[in-house]
Design brief:
Order of helices and strands of chain A: HHHHHHHHHHH
Structural class of chain A: mainly alpha
Helix content of chain B: 10-25%
CATH architecture of one domain in chain A: Orthogonal Bundle
CATH superfamily of one domain in chain A: MetI-like
CATH superfamily of the largest domain in chain B: P-loop containing nucleotide triphosphate hydrolases
Largest sheet of chain A: none
Distance between the termini of chain B: 41 Å
Largest sheet of chain B: 6 strands, mixed
Number of domains of chain B: 2
CATH topology of one domain in chain A: MetI-like fold
CATH class of one domain in chain A: Mainly Alpha
Strand content of chain A: under 5%
Strand content of chain B: 25-35%
Number of strands of chain B: 20
CATH architecture of the largest domain in chain B: 3-Layer(aba) Sandwich
Oligomer: heterodimer
CATH topology of the largest domain in chain B: Rossmann fold
Number of helices of chain B: 8
Strand order of the largest sheet of chain B: 6-7-8-3-9-10
Shape of chain A: globular
Radius of gyration of chain A: 24 Å
Chain lengths: 279, 376
């Protein structure tokens, strides 16, 4: 192992402090007995208990979770379809416009997307009487709109890196186009579909700006609730909530990296075996 | 097979391509190509990249529709028939194996559209694995195989449906030299055993020559010559084909006179008059191209017995390849003639044919000189 010079070591430590000190302080203070966030009053898990008694927070968390699950799933389906059309359908009429329109939300300020979506809902309510009230369905539509952009980007980049001839080979072997999609294309890009779904899920779970334009009374998502509470001062139960989220993320990341490392090792072993037995 | 594999025309028109043209926008990839391929033939489309051979192959497979013209397979017009309804299978240049399926599943994939029971299907897959000697690898995934093994899986997968026509796109392109030679003979054997009609696309003339019973040489969308490997090499129909296949000495020549047997030509670049055996009629053009292959020139240090087509020159340099050597002999008029001489003398014999600065005599059989009326 190469030894780092003192300078590099110092810089590395500073980097880690910069990244993780806020998170560590969040976790530490979530176990604070004191009501004051900045004063240490001894160890306690009282805020975790409070958190689970607070129906407002639990409702918001449940809403966020439902919204993220549904919008990520629908956005992944629509985004995958758009990606396949863009990469595999050749130069059809309106292709440039479609690809432009799909990627616009990536570069548009979120506030603009939020305002314009809200305006659309208001106009629709006036003309066709729907949506009469803003709530889950308007939130869902808004979230699908922006997370689909990310899904399409992930899927198009994966699809363009796949050799078209494997799909042609399936056609050649007697499969109709829809069977090729089912048997070959979707299984081969399934890792990309999964990561696109995770991306869409995270973005939806995280969003404040567009959500605050498109939600209705009584439909507060978790990030919005946190934001609203913090405006009145950081309370220790928010620290507890943050620590829980960090814990969930950490467990998820650790599990997935363990799975990936294991399958990589197995794959390497298999390749070794193939080379040894091959001729 | 009742067909003589060396005859130049097929006895039947199993596959028939009639004045097929394919345009991509302004670019004409295939230009009024017509050809017939017999049942059970191993046919090669040979040409450099961009000559239209792959486009022609893709039209046979159904991935491209001809702009005009017709393609018949076993008497059936292929116009508007999708690739998945054609009795044609293809082995792709990249092999195009399905990465998420085992070798077994890859080979069996095309069979799920056939009316077969499961045991029939399993039997067919097993027979295919046997044919390409990959029984031990049935449960492997493509990424666990070597290049040569992948190539054989691709071949087995394309053969599994027992197509009327098998298309092979650069089948040996991704293999190293040693494996190529072995695989070349394997493909020819499998073709013979199965009796399926093969059409091979390749840019490698050696591959085309050893594999195919007939070769179509393509250039900028058209077929320049269609014949057996031997005829393509020995009797090229144009200057282009002569220089494309093998190596050749090419010189501008002028027709001096013709008699019943020979054409007498002046070759100013060599500074001699040569006589060439006449094949067919020359059309009265006086400016010709004369060509002869390096291995058809006989080189000696003593004057040859006959004075016909004899020249004198000096060995400028030579390359030793083991079984033969390539000499470059400088003529008094300044040009270089390439001569291939077999090193069939025993090692240790001092009497090698020639070395640097040696004065040598060159003699060419009148039958070995080819004349073309087209210009460079």
């Amino acid at each position: 192992m190469k030894r780092l010079s003192r300078f590099l070591l110092t810089m590395m430590c500073l980097g880690y402090v910069y990244l993780y000190a806020p998170i560590i302080s969040l976790i530490v203070f979530s176990f604070n007995k004191s009501r004051l966030v900045t004063v240490w009053g001894g160890f306690s898990t009282v805020w975790y208990g409070r958190l689970f008694e607070n129906s407002q927070i639990l409702d918001a968390a449940w809403l966020s979770l439902r919204l993220a699950l549904t919008s990520a799933t629908i956005a992944t389906i629509l985004g995958t379809m758009a990606g396949i059309a863009l990469v595999r359908f050749g130069p059809f009429r309106g292709r440039t416009m479609l690809s432009g329109l799909i990627t616009t939300p990536l570069v548009m300020p979120e506030v603009l997307t939020g305002v314009s979506t809200l305006l659309l809902f208001l106009l629709m309510a006036k003309w066709i009487g729907w949506p009469a009230r803003r709530g889950f369905s308007t939130l869902l539509i808004a979230h699908i709109t922006f997370s689909m952009t990310y899904v399409t980007t992930v899927i198009t980049s994966r699809l363009s890196s796949i050799d078209v001839s494997i799909e042609e080979a399936a056609l050649d072997l007697g499969s109709a186009p829809w069977q090729v999609l089912k048997d070959i294309t979707l299984p081969v890009i399934s890792p990309a579909i999964l990561s696109a779904w995770l991306l869409a899920f995270t973005i939806s779970l995280d969003d404040v700006v567009i959500t605050s334009f498109t939600n209705g009374p009584g439909y507060n998502t978790l990030p919005m609730l946190v934001w609203a509470k913090v405006r009145l001062g950081v309370t220790p139960d928010i620290n507890a909530l943050g620590s829980l989220i960090v814990a969930v993320v950490a467990i998820g990341v650790t599990l997935s990296s363990i799975i990936i490392t294991r399958s990589e090792r197995r794959r390497e072993r298999e390749i070794q075996a193939a080379l040894a037995g091959g001729h | 097979m009742d067909r003589d594999p060396l005859s130049a025309t097929p006895s039947d028109r199993f596959i028939s391509v009639r004045t097929v043209t394919k345009q991509f926008g302004q670019f004409t990839a295939v230009d009024r190509v017509s050809l017939d391929i017999g049942k059970g033939e191993l046919f090669a489309l040979l040409g450099s990249s961009g000559c239209g051979k792959t486009t022609l192959l893709r039209m046979l497979a159904g991935f491209e529709e001809p702009t005009s013209g017709q393609i018949f397979i076993d008497g059936e017009d292929m116009a508007g028939i999708a690739p998945y309804h054609r009795p044609v299978n293809m082995m792709f240049q990249s092999y195009a194996l399905f990465p998420h399926m085992t070798v077994e599943k890859n080979i069996g994939y095309g069979l799920k559209h056939e009316r077969m029971t499961k045991s029939e299907r399993d039997d067919r897959v097993a027979a295919m694995l046997d044919l390409v000697q990959l029984k031990a690898f049935a449960r492997r995934h493509p990424h666990q195989l070597s290049g040569g093994q992948r190539q054989r899986v691709a071949l087995a997968r394309a053969l599994a449906k027992q197509p009327k026509l098998l298309l092979l796109d650069e089948p040996l392109g991704a293999l190293d030299k040693k494996l190529r030679e072995q695989t070349q003979f394997e493909i020819a054997n499998i073709q013979y055993e199965t009796g399926i009609t093969f059409v091979v696309v390749t840019h490698d003339q050696e591959e085309a020559m050893t594999l195919a019973s007939r070769i179509a040489i393509m250039d900028s969308g058209s077929i320049r010559q269609l014949d057996t490997p031997k005829n393509v090499y020995e009797f090229p129909s144009s200057r282009f084909v002569a220089s494309f296949i093998g190596s050749v000495n090419l010189f501008d020549a002028e027709l001096v006179r013709q008699d019943d047997q020979f054409a007498h030509i002046a070759v100013p670049e060599i500074g001699v008059t040569l006589q060439a055996l006449r094949r067919g009629q020359l059309h009265g053009k006086t400016r010709l191209t004369c060509a002869f292959r390096p291995e058809k020139v006989h080189m000696s240090r003593q004057p040859p017995a006959s004075a016909v087509n004899t020249m004198q020159g000096v060995v400028q340099d030579f390359g030793y390849f083991g079984k033969d050597s390539l000499y470059r002999v400088k003529m008094p008029a300044g040009s270089l003639i390439r001569v291939n001489a077999t090193n069939d003398l025993r090692a240790g014999d001092d009497d090698i044919v020639a070395t640097w600065e040696d004065e040598v005599y060159l003699a060419i059989d009148p039958a070995a000189i080819m004349l073309f009326e087209d210009e460079a």
